[in-house]
Each structure stands twice: as C-alpha cells, then as structure tokens.
C-alpha cells in the first residue's frame, strides 16, 4: 500500500507545474484561438527569472515572492508580446498566429542564452522544505507535498477568477461564443491582452515552481511543450477542470509507467491521448468545437484560375533555367538546391492539405519521416534498389496516412491537428525504440543513390523532376474535380454533403494524397543525405512545414513551395551568424506583421493594387 | 402508385425535449407542399432527419419505396433528395458557375478525379441551370460578392444540379425583398411543374405559403397538428390558436 | 566526375580570393568544424574555446610549414541533414581540407557516412557512439574522445572490485544510453560473472520523471546503481535520489558524471561517494595537465570543462596530422591519421590503425563536495588503450575493414 500511495503522490506533485502551464495554454486558446507554440518559452522564462530573483531575495519569504514575481514578470512579457505582435495578426487566417509564436520561441531561446549563459542552472531549494517526511514508511519529499497543496489552490483561485469576476465572465463568454463578446461592446483587445498575460503568467509560475525539483536549462521550452499539448487536448481545449484532471491523469499514469514499463516512457502519454480522443473526440471535459474553418477565417480567397499562357511560358523558362543549374552553379549550389526542392515538395504537400482541404495537421512529419524511413528500411533490410525505394516511399507514406487519417478524421479542427501530432509522436517513439531494425536514435546510415544517380548533378536532376512534378501535380489537383470538391467541403461542409459529396471520404483522400507526396519528399531526402534519423519525424519538422505554409500564404496556390524555398534558403544563410535564431525570429515576426496574408498573398495584393 | 416519400412515426428527442414527435406523412410525385409552424416547432430537425444529417430515435423514412433511414447524407442525395439551407449554403471561394459545376461533378460522382480541369466540365449544363434561376449574366463573378437574393438563387441552382426528385427547401425566401420572393417561388414551382419534381418547403412568410403551396402541413412542438389545402389550414382552429397563442406571425395569418 | 570538376573550380576560386588576406607566411589551411553551438551551447562552447586555443598555439609556433590553420565554425542546429549540407559546403566551396566536430552521435554518424562516400577525412571529436568506429566505422572517420565502451569499461572495472551483486541501471532512452548499459553489463559480467542486473530504467532524454525513477529503483533493492543520465536529468535524479535516500549505503557508478559540465551545475548538492569518469581540472599538479588548465584560464578567463580538453586535443590532432601528411589531399591526411601519435596534456594519444579510435583515456575518481562544489578525489588517469576489446573482437565489430 505504501509504495502505491507514494507513487500516486509523486504523480500528483508532477501534475503541479504541468497543470499551470497547460491551464494557461488552454485559457489562451479558449479566448483568443491562438495555439501558443511559445508557451514552453514562457515556462522557461519563468524558471530563469525565478532563479535570478531567488539569488537576490533571501529566506522563505524571498523564495515564495520570487515565484510569484516570476509569474507576474512573465505575464508582463506576455502582455508585451500580445500588444506588440499578436494584436496585429488577429485578422489573419486562424492559426496564422502560431507563426508569430514560433518567432517568439526563437527569440527567447537566444535571449535566454545571452542573459543566463549556456550552463544549466540548478534550482534553489525551498527554505524549510528540504528533505522528506515518511508516509506509511515511504519517503515523500516535503516540497512534493507543498506542490500537491499549492496546485489545487491555484486551480481554485483561477476558478474563482473565472466564475466570480467580470473579467472571468467575459473570458467564459468569449470561450463559448466569440462574436457575442464583440456584440456586447466589450473591448475585445484588452480582454485578449489580459487573457494572454494571465496564461503566460501561469506558465511562468509553473516554471518557477518546479525550480526546487530541477532547475532552468535552455532545452526546457521544447521538452515541456509536447506534454502540455497532450494535457490540454486530453482535458479538452479551453476547459480548466479538464486541464487539471488531465495533468493528474497523465502524471499518475506516467509514474506507474516508469515502474512497470520502464521502456514505455516515450510512447505512453501519446497512447493515453489517442485512447482518450478515440473515446471522447473533444477531450475529457471539452465541448464540440464550433469554429470549424481551420486556417480559413477572413474573406474567402478569389476563385482560382489556371495560369494564363504568358505565365506558363515564364514558369517553363524559369524551370529550364533551374534545371540547368549544374551547368552554371557551384557544386554547393546544386546541393543546396536539392535540399530546397525536397523541402518545397514537403511544404507543398502540407499546403495542399491546409489550403484545399482546410485540414491543419501538426504531425505532417509522420509522412515525410515515414517515407524516409520506408525507403531507408527497404534499402537496408531488403536490399531494394534506389528506384524501387523511391517508388515505395510515397506508397508507404500514403498507406500510413490512410491509417492515421481513418482515426484522426473522427475529430476536427484543433483536435484533429493534435491527433495527427500524437500519431507522429507515436511513430517517432516506435522508430526511436526500434533497436537494430530502425537503428534507434543512431538512425540508418550509408544509404546513397544508385550508381547512375550518384553524381550530385544527376541526383539534382532526379530530385528536380520528382519534386517539380509533385508540386505541379498537387497544383493541378487543385484545378481538377478533386480540388473543387475539397474546397466545396471546406467552404461549406453541410452544403457539400447535401450535394452528395462524402466530406469525410474526400478529406481522407486528401490526407492520403498529401501524405504520399510528403513521403516522396522524405524518400528523396534519405538519398540526398545518405542517412535518416528520428529527427525527420520530430515535432520540430512538422512545425517547420506548418510555419512555411503560413509564411508563404495559405490562401494561395503557390504559398507552400514559395514559403519552403524562402525559409530553407534563409535558414541556410542565417545560421552563419552568431545569433541566427534571434535574427530568424525577428525576420519571422517582421513578415508576420507586415504580411499577414503570407508572402505570396501579400505580393498578390500588392500587385493588384499596382495594376489598379 | 405508392407515395414518393413516406414518413412513418418519425421522432427525435433531445433529453426531455421532443423536437420531432411521431410525425407521419406522405408526399406524392409532383407535390408542392409547405411545412409551417412557429420557431422551434421541429421543422429543421425534421429536414435533417430526412436528409440523414440527424438520426431519428424512432420511425422510418421510405423514399421511392426503399427505406432510407440511417443512410449517410451522401447516399440519400444519390437516391434523389436535394435540399437548400436556411442559412444559404454556397461555396464562397468559387465563381458562380463553378459552384454549379462542382454540384454537377458531385452528382456525377467524379470528385476523386485529379486529371481534367474542372472548370471545363459541365460548363454548359451549369449555364443552363443558371439561366433557369436567372443568374446567367453573373456566371463568372465570384460567389462571395453576390447579393443575398442571388445567393439564394445560386443555391437553388446548386441543388437542382443534383437532379433531385424531391427538393427540401428550408426557408427559401428568408431575408429577401417581397418581389424577389415571388420571383424565386415562381421559378421553383415552374421547374416543379416542368420536371415533375416534388417540393417540400418551410416558410415563415404566409403570403408565400398560401400563394405557392398546393397543400400545407402545420408542425407544433414536434407534432403535426393539421394538413390540408391552404384554405383548410387557414380555417383550422388549432392552427389559428397556435399562431395567435404563441404570437408568432399572427398578422401574417390574419392578413392572408 | 562532374562534381569533382565543380569542386575543383570552387576551391581554386576561393583560394585566389583568400590568398592576399592571410598572413605573410602563407595561405591558411582551412579546417571545417561543424557543431551544435546553439542547441548544446553548454558543451560546444568550452570545446570551441579549447580548439581555438590549440590553433592559436600552433599558428604562433609557425603553423604547418609556415601556413596557419584556420578553422571555420558552423552551426548545424543539431540536425544531421543540416550537418551534411554544411559539410558539403565546407569541403566544396570553402576549401577546407577536412571536417571535425559534433557532440551528438547521430550527427557524427551522418557526417561519417558522407565522409566515407566522398573520401573526406572526418575527425569525430566528441560523439561517443561505439558505432562510429565499429559497426558503422569506415576508413575516413577517426574518433578522438574515449568512447562509450571505454568509459563504461573503466567503471565496470571499478565495480568489479566492490562486493555489490545486484545492479540497477538508469540511462536515457536512446542509443548512447543503450550502448552505455550494454557495455557496462558486458565488461562487468566478464570480470564478475555472479553479478545480476535487477532493474533497468530508461527515462526519456531531458524529460526524466525523477521521483518515479527513484521509486522504481528503490523498489528493486539493488546493491549498486549504474547511472548514465546527464545534464538536467542528472540534476533532478541526484536531488530526488538524495532526498529519498536512494544512494544511502549503495555503490553508485556514474558515467561522465564527474565531468565539470555536469558536476559544476550541481554545486553543493553534487553527489558524494559516486565512482565516476570525469575531468578533475582543479586538482592537477603534474605539469602538462596543470599547464593546460592555467593557459586556458588565462586565455578565456574561465575554468576549463571536459569539452575544453577535447577541443584542445582536436586542434593538436589536426595539426599533427597535417604535419605528418605529405600533402593536403584527403588521402594523405587520412594516411597521416592512421597510427598518428599526438602528445597533449593527458600524455600520448594514438589513433589506432585497427579501428581509427584514439587512445585518449579518461579520469576515474570518487566524487566529494569541497567548499560547496562537487569534485573528484582519489582520481587517476586511465589510458584508453587499456579499455578496448582485443583486436580480434574489434575486427569482428568493425565489418568495414
């Protein structure tokens, strides 16, 4: 009995910081509909600021006020970010704001490195709470008990704030019906700022509170992000009691997982998440999402037209010039162009899914990495030639998408996005723990192109043909009946269904098609690099593609590949500088604020104005 | 000849609320019938059940002699039922003609094709349908810029593209100017006469109902309380009570 | 064919631009260094400083036959794919003659595979994976730092001297952790067949649930614990384990736990009595080691880390190989590395011909807390050559040669 109780207490203590960070994210999403990728960064800032304050403020009083002040400081930083950046992009397509939050992540990473240095900081102990008490003979750290007590207090305070104050009533109203708040004449701007600041303050509080259990380090922003996403989704986006329930559930399951299935640490939370969402597609306490138009808010795009002859001739010429790159470009230019082309196809495939089908996937890397691994495994274990591997990579990725889509499309909106993320993570953990078969984190190396395609110039031409072919195919599909049917389902799903379109089957087909195309890009990647590692399945890879699609412009046909080319080339150039993450973050924010329709969208709007 | 649509004892409950409660009726081919009733009477729920968008708790629907209860909307549409929505449903990112062309493609079942250019398919048929509803001159404008009345017409063309044998129209003239209403309903009834299409529509405007429906059904709190010719329904004491008692549109009934 | 022509063209173009810029002695010899300077700043920065210091010393002493060494540092974000592209750029456009670097094993493996394909020399300075010189080893890749196997073997040797029979292991759930546990088990079981491994814990890298891990270890009632966690995971593990009394009365063996990178952040809470591998820079009285430490402190105004030593040795190795080689062609540099002897602060290090692994060793000692800071006491330097399997086993594990 003792050990079991002790484990439950450990789980409850772990739930503390997780709940605070998750409830902040949940609040922000509920009111502003922003999926705040930077939430982990605010958590990290809370830890660092808390650490600094604890060095200055003495004693028990100093310790606890440092935690509180850290929360307040991070809240202020959050308010600053909201006012200076996010406010400018609320009118942009939904989820576009996540690009801005991505820029914030990059900036915070470099600033934290500049201010606090590269070394991990050990969290100070809570005065008077060092050591353990024995409960049924089991040692339980005193600070754990403090956390177990504090968390419900914070939750209660939050609950009181939400139910008893005018601000809280507005928050709840906004979570349930955004237009209504606007109609009530409430100053929506300050409501959003207030909510964002409160959410960030909670993240900062979480970061400072966990200091005595660990410390502050530069990787903690990303390491907590996935767990927080899981908690928010399992609990139900926008539901505070849900967030508490889910953080306890995930933490306690995690603790027992460590004991009884030590190898399970990677996959367990995601298995729980998929199971919960299969049972309750909107999380434990979430409501059905009303805002169904993911990525499509704002004025509808103009009807698309196939390019006219002058444009086609121009594009053909440009392609010829590009194809001839090995004749005039340097060896490195050819290699860089190969990488960019592959990334463009990957981005274009996600762009098709987002732009045409209106489906936002947070886990598109599952198919990119899936295709890459399919090709690599075929070569490594079946001795397949490159040609066969490149053929089977998109097929395998398509099959994978067929399977994942079957489950994920039961949900919609952000829940769909989160399910794709969960599946991508599951695949990642499978590969990570695949032992000799997948090579685990050491990956599969030594997988180079067939002899005839070995020279970089030839491989470039092969990549060029497949990627440009793939991008053109995706583009043409938008003009074909498939594209029209998808846009019909996206613009107005009930109308589409009443016209005999099977909306879910169409989305499923689009998901599979996009997955297969990402798989082709992944297959090419393996042979370009000669190796593949689980990095290609990571969340960061999915985010890269997502950012690029938004940067390029969702409501355009070329946004995917244009964004991909600009981003990949930009990163290659920027990483030559010392503080490249800071620079890249600022550039991203700059683009986001001056060009909320993305690069292509804004260029088109500009061109239209010039013509008039 | 058996009825085109045969609804038997159809019910849908939400907890204690009986949105639709044991409704039965038949429609013969070529009927133009109105379904009226105060707000919350269950008209929209009934439509949703007929289209397969909502599952009934009990009861059955037969269409053309075959049971369609529990089929998915796309399957029911294939059998020959079409509808228009109270909140007008069109596809904003396409041109007017493309809206109708897409509906034609959906009717064809060619929607997974990625080879041809869709804008060249069914263009003539779309133009003919737009001509029928009086939108031919706006074929190449983006649907997003249409006036409200034109959107209603466009949706009618979209629905007609599916060549339905039965067309359900949920408040087809809501929000339109009086002259537009008459225009639209005349177009609809003309098409019904010409093609033998059956029409079931809900409507708040009693002028429209009494001018265009051959027969009228009255739904109140989920149950059918009257059915007959416009004159019969107008004279029905319970109907008068429902409308006058509830206070919705009493003047409309009185005016008529 | 085509590629080589282009490579030649770019190299000559860069050389002509670069020539007037360098010192009067002659044109610089360029070395490409690829590392995760941002993502793993705590480890990469000291490494870079050590490396730069070695290069400065070499250049001050006249460089390589009058030509200075120039190192081009590039950040790969910790992404193998990026590292590959940067390697290509360095070798084909920047005119570097060889590649060094990486901490993460997967990045090291990716560069190594490219080096093998292109016939470029790669000195994997810091990555620890055994695969780098064994299962995925190739003639073009050399590795400097004592590998996972070597360091685990050093601890296993110490473990065999104790009375502990029941062992528990805790290692991050990825290739390094797996290798480290496997090597420790292999060597310890050989030295002392009666030991048993009662529980293996595999926390996720940098996401350890320390409380739960400690409870799971305690539940198995081991005599000894073998720890492979590092960085923030180690801090959390040490804290929870200390609070809950996990380490009381148990032998603990910590791989790398004595390296300043990991020990210093723990401050006064550093564990006491653990047997660890590490780098006791504060305790040297022998000349070469002490001289390096004071030179480093003078140059950078901070104390050295283990990475500083590895970086310094990297610079010395590169210089030694360039001196030894009769040309700057990759093949000549590769040949020079085979059997190359480099003398640095820790003594002589030899790049073994049999598997391209350098014999650089590690310091093994016991942790203690002195003046509020974790240190290693009773330490000694173990020569890496003594902790590698016999030649026959090595050949079996290295299929490429």
From TrEMBL, chain A:
CDD domains: TM_PBP1_LivH_like, TM_PBP1_LivM_like. GO terms for cellular component: plasma membrane. One of its GO terms (biological process) is amino acid transport. Keywords: Amino-acid transport, Cell membrane, Membrane, Transmembrane, Transmembrane helix, Transport. It holds the Pfam family BPD_transp_2. GO terms for molecular function: branched-chain amino acid transmembrane transporter activity. The chain crosses the membrane at residues 6-29, 41-57, 63-86, 98-117, 145-162, 190-212, 218-236, 388-409, 416-437, 457-474, 508-527, 547-567, 579-599. It is a multi-pass membrane protein. It is found in: Cell membrane. Belongs to the binding-protein-dependent transport system permease family. LivHM subfamily. This is Branched-chain amino acid transport system permease protein. It comes from Roseivivax halotolerans.
TrEMBL record, chain B:
It comes from Roseivivax halotolerans. Residues 5-246 form the ABC transporter domain. Coiled coil: none annotated. It comes from the Bacteria. Keywords: ATP-binding, Nucleotide-binding, Transport. InterPro entries: AAA+_ATPase, ABC_AA/LPS_Transport, ABC_transporter-like_ATP-bd, ABC_transporter-like_CS, BCA_ABC_TP_C, P-loop_NTPase. It holds the Pfam family ABC_tran. The lineage of its organism: Bacteria, Pseudomonadati, Pseudomonadota, Alphaproteobacteria, Rhodobacterales. GO terms for molecular function: ATP binding; ATP hydrolysis activity; L-isoleucine transmembrane transporter activity; L-phenylalanine transmembrane transporter activity; L-valine transmembrane transporter activity. One of its GO terms (biological process) is D-alanine transmembrane transport. PROSITE patterns: ABC_TRANSPORTER_1, ABC_TRANSPORTER_2. SMART domains: AAA. PANTHER family: AMINO ACID ABC TRANSPORTER ATP-BINDING PROTEIN, CONSERVED COMPONENT OF ABC TRANSPORTER FOR NATURAL AMINO ACIDS-RELATED. GO terms for cellular component: plasma membrane. This is Branched-chain amino acid transport system ATP-binding protein.
TrEMBL record, chain C:
Residues 40-366 form the Leucine-binding protein domain. It comes from the Bacteria. SUPFAM superfamilies: Periplasmic binding protein-like I. The keyword Transport applies. This is Branched-chain amino acid transport system substrate-binding protein. Keywords: Amino-acid transport, Signal, Transport. Gene3D superfamilies: 3.40.50.2300. The keyword Heme does not apply. Belongs to the leucine-binding protein family. GO terms for biological process: amino acid transport. It comes from Roseivivax halotolerans. Pfam families: Peripla_BP_6. Residues 1-23 form the signal peptide.
